[in-house]
Specification:
3 helices, two-stranded parallel ribbon, about 100 residues, two-stranded antiparallel ribbon, globular, alpha+beta
């Protein structure tokens, strides 16, 4: 169990989890030929996910995004949605998921 309080941010909790769980699986997607992505399955561990989130957060910052911005995401049901959401949270931006069926 990772200790946290009411003041712990999502980013801080994710940092602690990545440190504690390292290579353990963080996200996984099952295989499925019906999907346009990850047809053979996909998995990412905490440490690799943490590196991806940090890199995305840096890219968003470099592009001028930050606290108070809202970014629309059209990522279907891809597991990467959660990585992008964590990166946006890290820079203080809000994720606005877009449903392609609308």
């Amino acid at each position: 169990m990772i200790p946290f309080t009411d003041e712990t941010t999502i980013g801080e909790a994710f940092d602690r989890a990545a440190e504690a769980f390292g290579r353990r699986p963080f996200l996984a997607a099952p295989s499925g030929r019906h999907k346009p992505y990850h047809q053979t399955g996909w998995e990412i561990g905490f440490a690799d996910a943490h590196r991806e989130v940090e890199a995305m957060a840096a890219a968003f910052r470099a592009a001028g995004f930050g606290h108070g911005h809202r970014l629309a995401m059209l990522l279907d049901n891809r597991p990467e949605h959660f990585l992008v959401k964590l990166a946006l949270n890290r820079i203080g931006a809000t994720c606005v998921p877009v449903n392609p069926d609308y």
